[in-house]
Amino acid sequence: MSDLEYLRRALPMVGAEPAILDDTRIAHVVAHGHRILSHRTVPGVRVELEETPDAIIGKLIVEAGAQITQPIHMCFGLAHPTGVQQIKIDVVICEGAQARVLSHCLFPFARAAEHRMQAVMEIGPGASLTYTEGHYHGPHGGMRVLPHATIKIGPGARYFSDFSLLSGSVGTLDIDYLVKVEADGLAELSAKIFAHKTDHITLKEAVMLRGERSRSLIKTRVVLEDQAQADIVGITEAYAKGARGHVDCMEIVQGRAHASAIPIVRVFHPEAKVTHEAAIGSVDKKELETLMARGMSPEQAVEMIVSGILR
Amino acid sequence: MPVPLLDIAALTFEADHHPILDRLDLSIQPGEIHALLGANGSGKTTLAYVLMGCEGYVPSGGRILFNGADLLPLKMYERARLGLTLAWQEPARFEGVTVREYLSLGKPDFDPAPALKQVGLDPDRYLNRRVDKSLSGGERHRIELASVLSMNPKLAILDEPSAGIDMLSIAHIIGIIRAVKAGGGSVILITHQEEVALIADRASQLCAGRIIFSGSPRDAVDHFRGRTCVRCDGEVCNYVRP
Known about the structure:
The complex is a heterodimer. Chain A is mainly β. Chain A is built from three helices and 19 strands. In chain B, the strands form two sheets. A six-stranded mixed sheet of chain B has the order 6-7-8-3-9-10, sandwiched between helices. In chain B, strands 2-1-4-5 form a four-stranded antiparallel sheet, with helices on one face. In chain B, α6 (137-151) packs parallel to α7. Classes of the chains: A mainly beta, B alpha/beta. Chain A binds chain B through residues 221, 250, 284-287, 289-298, 300-301, 304-305, 307-311, and chain B through 52, 54-55, 75-77, 80-81, 85-86, 88, 91-97, 101, 105-106, 130, 147, 150-151.
């Protein structure tokens, strides 16, 4: 079976249908290691990619005013137990454009592999980007993933991101995002991760509310079991009048797992406001007892509560 | 006298060596709606938690028979599987869980729509909503009662089911309580609202962890209002004597 076929077959693990790669109305990129196996563009979308020995380097540009109705699929991965993949990509959503990117990161056989992503995203004035990132790292826990990104959100622009890693092992995950929001801009960052065994998560998301009336939400939901570990840092700094930010982190810890959550909020303008909430602990006792009072066993109740939190 | 569905004898529960339930006796007949009245802190909610087997509510003495079975050795979900359930005064909220999932409790073939209709909520509007903070207090209360109805329980303990419900909707709540009875179930109805208490078949007044009066709902309400508690002489259950 070809590497492309392996990756196609892994797409359902992140909730995507393999048939999307055959649909001529849908833009896509499929990269295995440092090779581009398939790509397609649609009107309004430009993809410029270059294969190099140690990285794929490129740009994804959505032209000014373009309204891309179908999501753009970016499928990265390795079909082998070992290897390295490094992606350096600039995503530019030009003024007034609107697009949705679904990024699928597939490492179904990973035993000692690494994926590095270095992205710079620029969302132009009045533009909107919804960036949904689904990961599957296989069952073995041998994956090391380091997505680092700087996201610049222009005046009146909107950025929504949703990172999820809900099945299989995480391995080592080190996310580092820096988001800068200009006047009237909006950033909503959501991450949902279910970690097991010896998985180790480091998640740092920092939002700088630089413009007047800029707004942000960082929402993190992490469930840990066995001996998994998570260190979550959510930073929001507000520098301008009317800026509003909120950091919301919840970690459910089971077994011998352990977790930390550090919300850091800083305000540099008297008319800005940033709030935070963080909760770490076992499953909420009242929720658990409510379900058990309806006849669910503790195991069934925990499963229902956890699946809701990670939805 | 028929065999009671619930038979509580000399039930004692202490917190920090302070008796919250003090050798409490109470029996509930099959199909009976029994209202529990009493001042704040008289032990009504504690009794509900002890009956349901909530964590930290293990009695230090006494006996609870439910349908002839000793409840005390049983875990909470085992009690629920016998047909006992509890609707909390402040129902829990569940992030991400839909009303459909909450009412179905993992049973894929269960149709939750009839229970929602019974509590006056349109299934088309509510089944796919989440049981989280997007629901108002009144909506959450109704969904809690729908989940009780979905169980078709033998005994439902309803802790202030009309709290936070607008007065126009009280009739719905009363209808739900009667629906449990119509389904063959009994209800322990903890309430501070006279209008709701009066639908009961019998009522009891608690004071300092013990039943101090049982009778018709009208008589129990009058007893409570009359500040004639022989146990505390008005000091505990009525705060201030007239």
